[in-house]
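Data card: per-record layout.
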Amino acid sequence: MTYKLDLEQITILLSRMAEALERIAPSYQFPDNLEKAEGFIWEAQLRKLQIIEEIERLPLSCLQGIEQQKRELLENSRAFARGLKANNALLWGARGTGKSSLLKAVHGQLLSEGLDCAIVEVQREDIQDLPHVMQVLKHSNRRFILFCDDLAFEEADSSYKSLKAVLEGGLSGRPDNIVFYATSNRRHLMPRQMIDNERGSAINPSEAIEEKISLSDRFGLWIGFHSVDQDTYLSMIENYVGFYELPVDLEQTKSQALTWCMGRGHRSGRTAYQFIIHLAGTLGITLKK
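The structure for this 289-residue chain is written out next.
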């Protein structure tokens, strides 16, 4: 038995199919006004750029032991916010050494200087959405720092190839109002084992390695972070105590801070800040924003 559908019935069926597809894969959503908020975060599951009402960060002066890193990233970011050419930046190094904190603090410093620049965070798992996000942001009159925290790629992951194209922008180049910053524990964003395997199994090892590490070369600015010595760690503690105006004996607090970091086997800015949170809790004090 056969059925004949008239034009009206076909139109209704196509409309229903389109609505069903729309529910399965909703369209991308962006705020009507990208000029107001200081920051945004890309919600991949909702395909939505979400406004961040308040960015949690420390002032730049609170970050100790990374003076050169502060200067390099601030200079690059300030040039970008002023409408000049700037490099994509890769902040790499040991865990907890202040990479993400520095990025947010530099952004806050730009705003305090009256330089209008928004920060947009995209999760590592959502890198494939970057081209569409950039396509929308490039039509804005505002400048944006695209930010990916803890960026790294595993052996079976091929999404790094799409990121390479995004960083350069293809034939049209990277939009002038967008710069890409990333933090990573790996200098070349790839695990050492992955690079060694490519070297050992390739017919031409140098070409295989070049393919893997060329992603990090797309970042014009590399800023390294390293574990701090004891004096720098204690300087961080002293700075935090002064900034938050904690009513404690400084020498006794430093001694407690050393015990705290030994229990974690690691000295870093993160360890110092976690100790201050613990200290404030024992004092019944809420740390001010």
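Known properties of this structure: The longest helix spans residues 7-24. The chain has ten helices and seven strands.

See the next section for split statistics.
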